[in-house]
């Protein structure tokens, strides 16, 4: 029973670092130096004011020095990181695949929030992820051949969709960032994961997109970034994909 507790605490602190990544990577700033500052008054945040979730509660969501609101996003990312850590621990046990998939999930978490904020997916995360993945997959329950096919299929299928959509409507639906992201996901999940991720992301995108478009009243122009849906779909695949696929085919008889 000690490991879930250790992993939760560890996940919270990693989450605190992920907040720094989400904030600084799009600005091309270093994620290790300098230490955290309040973006408003630029005062350094002391260690005891930087404890994940607890400091946010203790400071009641405000900077100690200037009283500026700290976005609820910060403790939310910390909690999501801890939740992912525990969920992957339960799924894979205390093992190398657990460590690799959890770090991969952290990368997807960072990509999700950067894409929501800026509608970009930094190449360092997607292409960097492909590079790391091509080595890390050796320790994952994914055949190397499936990972390579996943890489090509992930990129190819989205390029085909983007060109097809452009051919039919004259508009660009998705960006090159999504192509590189799905290719990166393919390395870690194999081609089976690419199909599952694309299908579930499209389904979630439609379910969220219809009310979203309706609320925005700008027509289909009000594009929602697709990266977050791809990320969530990929995480669901690695955690419960085989169960869901089995259940689905069972349902079909
Ligand atoms: Zn401040």
Q: How would you describe the overall organization of this protein?
A:
- With 253 residues, the chain is mainly alpha-helical.
- The chain folds into two domains: 1-94, no CATH class; 119-253, no CATH class.
- Helices cover 70% and strands 0% of the residues.
- It is built from eight helices and no strands.
- The chain has helices spanning 2-24, 54-58, 73-92, 96-118, 123-136, 144-169, 176-216, 227-252.
- Helix 4 packs antiparallel against helix 5 (123-136) and helix 4 packs across helix 8.
- 36% of the residues are buried.
- The mean pLDDT is 92.
- Bound molecules: zinc ion.
- Zinc ion (ZN) is lined by residues 38, 40-41, 43, 63, 65-66, 68.
- Zinc ion binds next to loops.
Task: Show the helix and strand layout.
Layout: H1 2-24, H2 54-58, H3 73-92, H4 96-118, H5 123-136, H6 144-169, H7 176-216, H8 227-252
Residues 38, 40-41, 43, 63, 65-66, 68 line the site of zinc ion.
